[in-house]
What does this fold into?
Amino acid sequence: MALAGNGLKGCDLSDHDSPISLQGGGTLAKQLVAAEDGGHWPVPEGTILASGVSRVAAFSVDVVIVTTILMVVTGWRIMDAWNITLWSSPDFHFALAMAVILLTAHWLYWRLTGLRYSRSLGQRMFGLAVLAEDGSAMTSAMLDERAARKLVFLIPVLNVVFGIIELRRISSRHTHQSNIDLHVGSIVVHADSLPPANRKHVR
It folds into this structure.
């Protein structure tokens, strides 16, 4: 004890940083995962992440729901949004108008269902939910941007290209996040696997 006392005598450790101190707070495990994923927090403990297949299925249901409603409301004229012949004709503005309606309707659908249920109706059907990375509810701004970025999947050819890219990203990341998720800061999970504290805003 005397040796230890002599060895430390006169040494002021107040100016030295602890070798195990963590910047930004949180556990070491969280810091390591955050560093691995470029600064993103891990999902809530025990959460089951949604697979790419279930997410594609939910997206397909959403598109069917919105498009069916638009077909009824517009008397099937919404189909002009995909009419290549009309796009290449002098009357292309009819196709443009339907395309704007189609994109706007989907954006509003994903935004409003996200605000109300923390998921779309398609995701609800498959038991999925969309959360912020820390398990909290998505903010209005996050839902706005997420809905806007998903619109690319409604554009022919681009939807196939970006769909393949996003599915590869989902399957390759341990957080199952697409590029859209990473940009917005969201995760898609199985709602029933969430801890009660993180499930209260999911309807």
Summary: The chain has a mean pLDDT of 84. Residues 41-199 form one domain.
